[in-house]
């Protein structure tokens, strides 16, 4: 998940011999759903698709997107997972840029941004773009989801 973690467990009720592997496997699963750094993750596959049809996703991915959209609505768009293209344009993420984008580049990019351009269903878990070039980024929420999943496991 692009970071390190440390967990201390104080319990006599849980067999801890395999706990590290269970936690690692759980976080690998979350990463394979929501990491934009992994080319074949669910989010990367969704982002690389230009389809505006429903796209099947895992339950966890759907839950995080749904919660993200709820937060976007409550914050009047201050939190918005559709800012992926702006993140790339400004040089954050995988490719580090050294040049400030022009007003024209920013304006042409923002037409593909907006959480209202995303549809989500939990049953069945699926997501849909209203704009083919829309891309999402869950970096601001996925780590918290990973922590929640680890807490559930423990």
Question: Could you give a short description of this structure?
Answer:
The protein is mainly alpha-helical and 154 residues long. Helix content is 42%, strand content 8%. Strand 2 and strand 3 form a beta hairpin.
Could you walk me through the main structural features you see in this protein, from its secondary elements to its overall organization?
- The chain is mainly α.
- It has six helices and three strands, in the order H-H-E-H-H-H-E-E-H.
- It has helices at residues 19-34, 42-48, 59-74, 84-89, 103-110, 142-153, and strands at 55-56, 118-122, 125-129.
- A three-stranded antiparallel beta sheet has the order 1-3-2, with helices on one face.
- Helix 1 runs antiparallel to helix 6.
- 21% of the residues are buried.
């Amino acid at each position: 998940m692009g970071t390190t973690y440390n967990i201390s467990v104080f319990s006599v009720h849980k067999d801890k011999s395999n706990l590290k592997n269970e936690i690692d496997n759980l976080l690998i699963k979350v990463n394979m759903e929501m990491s934009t750094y992994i080319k074949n993750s669910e989010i990367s596959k969704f982002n690389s698709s230009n389809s505006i049809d429903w796209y099947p996703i895992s339950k966890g991915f759907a839950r995080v997107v749904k919660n993200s959209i709820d937060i976007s609505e409550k914050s009047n768009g201050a939190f918005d997972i559709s800012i992926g293209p702006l993140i790339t344009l400004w040089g954050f993420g995988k490719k580090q840029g050294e040049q400030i984008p022009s007003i024209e580049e920013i304006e042409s990019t923002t037409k593909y941004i907006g959480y209202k351009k995303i549809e989500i269903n939990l049953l069945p878990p699926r997501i849909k773009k209203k704009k083919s070039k829309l891309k999402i980024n869950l970096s601001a929420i996925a780590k918290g989801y990973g922590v929640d999943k680890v807490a559930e496991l423990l």
